[in-house]
Amino acid sequence: MRKALIVWGGWPGHDPDLCASMIRGWLKAEGFEVRIETTTEAFGDPAIHDLSLIIPIYTMSKIEKADALNLCAAVRGGVGLAGHHGGMCDAFRESVDYQFLCGGQWVAHPGNIIDYKVDVTKPDDPVMKGLKSFEHRSEQYYMHVDPAIEVLATTTFTGEHASWIDGVVMPVVWKKRYGAGRVFYSSLGHRAYELDVPEIRTLMTRGMLWAARE
């Protein structure tokens, strides 16, 4: 049985406890044994090197450098990493090691909660197969991203809330390699209920399975 670790905490506005519970259920349905922790020290545990998958749900906050480096080493050795929204890519803003691992960092969501479109750019990828572009109402994440990511879906900014980014095409869903490990990320899911949007639930579940070490 593959083993997964979910670590949740940090800013409560992203419903980290509810998201952790939901994702735990999805992974258990896929045959994973799932452990949940609520402190960043969990990333420093040597035992994480034996896991199949790690899910961070920890907006903002801080991580000790040794813990971040241990997490990076685990993924570099083959452990999968997957997550969503600020729980993964607005975590540990001071840790460049962690940001290099994830492939991107949130910097703004102009207009806050708005209507926008998610465009599927790789419909033949196993994570996105059968999914069509869809409208969504939430935070439209503007991110600084690693050029090495493989982009699976994007969104285009209108400039209504920040004129200088009119027409900017921003990655929304991506995957990447980090050493022997696989990393998956979706910027969707500001609140827990958004994870139940059929397209979001599907791509998240597939993305976690893609990232997980066999």
UniProtKB/TrEMBL annotation:
What's the protein called, per UniProt? ThuA-like domain-containing protein
Record organism:
Bradyrhizobium cytisi
Q: Which stretches make up the ThuA-like domain?
A: 3-211
Q: Which PANTHER family match?
A: GALACTOSE-BINDING DOMAIN-LIKE SUPERFAMILY PROTEIN (PTHR40469:SF2), SECRETED GLYCOSYL HYDROLASE (PTHR40469)
Q: What is the lineage of its organism?
A: Bacteria, Pseudomonadati, Pseudomonadota, Alphaproteobacteria, Hyphomicrobiales
Entries under SUPFAM superfamilies matching the protein: Class I glutamine amidotransferase-like (SSF52317)
From the record, what ranges are coiled-coil?
none
The protein's superkingdom reads Bacteria
